[in-house]
């Protein structure tokens, strides 16, 4: 492992939620350990693509911004994809979806969200951090991963070191980078095993009503506010919970479970958002209007495979 005192990027001021995230932990849920990883994995993958990194390389996930200030100690090229958090390099605005050169002594500041919620800052070769159960991702609740392996978000005085060297400038092809969510954005959902247990009125409402993102939202899950959904099931044996699972507790207001979710749960489920829809929801600010759209498993798999082809060795794919 690299020496963390080496020159790289120094944290001058820590934002409220700036954490190292990568592709997440795979094959550990039987241990009761959550998946973690980048909530908007599509933005993470594009940020890494801009620098020639492996798609799931460790980067910074920056939520809201909140004054996160980084001082550059070594010249390199970085990439920023995802939300527009009013990022500025020495007061010059940065456009998300691009890579940019930085010089020693410059300061990179993230302010408040102007479009979207989470930004991803990638570094050449990915960030150095201890691997815990196969991932560098920060999981505060379980005290795993992150810069020092203890699940702690960044704090002032931390120093970030990267593992590779910059490549020549790249540009994301027009139309391939998903835009930030707009009012009424559609979230694809694959119906689940308990969907037939919801009343007909509830099913109609679930897929025809407008839902609003509640302010009770974090990396564990997002509550949606709208019509009260009713399920005929009185109780359930707890079962495994996938990414994007849409649970409906007794109050009838759905909860969409994200990367830091619990590993099992006992509420009935409408189904699960597709991985692409879960990434889109992760960029929705409180109050954002969304709609649920039922899709087949085959459609969800086809859409996922198409997106993943963009990050293969052959480069961005046509459709």
TrEMBL record:
<dbReference type="InterPro" id="IPR003778">
    <property type="entry name" value="CT_A_B"/>
</dbReference>
<dbReference type="InterPro" id="IPR029000">
    <property type="entry name" value="Cyclophilin-like_dom_sf"/>
</dbReference>
<keyword id="KW-0547">Nucleotide-binding</keyword>
<dbReference type="InterPro" id="IPR052708">
    <property type="entry name" value="PxpC"/>
</dbReference>
<dbReference type="GO" id="GO:0016787">
    <property type="term" value="F:hydrolase activity"/>
</dbReference>
<dbReference type="Pfam" id="PF02626">
    <property type="entry name" value="CT_A_B"/>
</dbReference>
<feature type="domain" description="Carboxyltransferase">
    <location>
        <begin position="30"/>
        <end position="311"/>
    </location>
</feature>
<keyword id="KW-0378">Hydrolase</keyword>
<dbReference type="GO" id="GO:0005524">
    <property type="term" value="F:ATP binding"/>
</dbReference>
<keyword id="KW-0067">ATP-binding</keyword>
<protein>
    <submittedName>
        <fullName>Allophanate hydrolase subunit 2 family protein</fullName>
    </submittedName>
</protein>
């Amino acid at each position: 492992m690299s020496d963390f005192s080496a020159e790289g990027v120094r944290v001058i001021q820590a934002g409220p939620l700036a954490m190292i995230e990568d592709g997440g932990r795979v094959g550990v849920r039987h241990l009761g350990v959550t998946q973690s990883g980048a909530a908007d994995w599509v933005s993470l993958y594009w940020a890494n693509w801009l620098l020639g990194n492996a798609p799931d390389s460790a980067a910074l996930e920056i939520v809201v911004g909140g004054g996160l200030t980084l001082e550059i100690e070594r010249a390199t090229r970085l990439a920023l994809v995802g939300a527009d958090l009013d990022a500025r390099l020495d007061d010059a605005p940065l456009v998300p979806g691009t890579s940019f050169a930085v010089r020693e002594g410059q300061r990179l500041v993230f302010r408040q969200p102007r479009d979207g919620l989470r930004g991803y800052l990638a570094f050449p070769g990915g960030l150095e951090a201890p691997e815990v159960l196969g991932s560098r991702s920060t999981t505060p609740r379980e005290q795993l991963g992150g810069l020092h392996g203890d699940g702690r978000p960044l704090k002032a005085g931390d120093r970030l070191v990267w593992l590779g060297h910059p490549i020549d400038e790249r540009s994301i092809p027009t139309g391939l980078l998903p835009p930030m969510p707009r009012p009424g954005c559609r979230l694809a959902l694959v119906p689940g095993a308990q969907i037939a247990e919801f009343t007909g009125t509830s099913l109609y409402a679930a897929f025809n009503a407008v839902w609003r993102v509640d302010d009770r939202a974090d990396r564990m899950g997002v509550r949606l506010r709208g019509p009260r959904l009713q399920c005929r099931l009185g109780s359930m044996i707890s079962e495994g919970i996938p990414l994007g699972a849409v649970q409906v507790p007794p109050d009838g207001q759905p909860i969409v479970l994200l990367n830091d979710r619990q590993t099992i749960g006992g509420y009935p489920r409408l189904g699960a958002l597709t991985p692409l829809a879960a990434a889109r929801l992760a960029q929705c600010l409180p109050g954002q209007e969304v709609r649920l759209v039922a899709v087949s498993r085959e459609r969800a798999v086809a859409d996922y495979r198409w997106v993943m082809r963009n990050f293969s060795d052959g480069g961005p794919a046509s459709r």
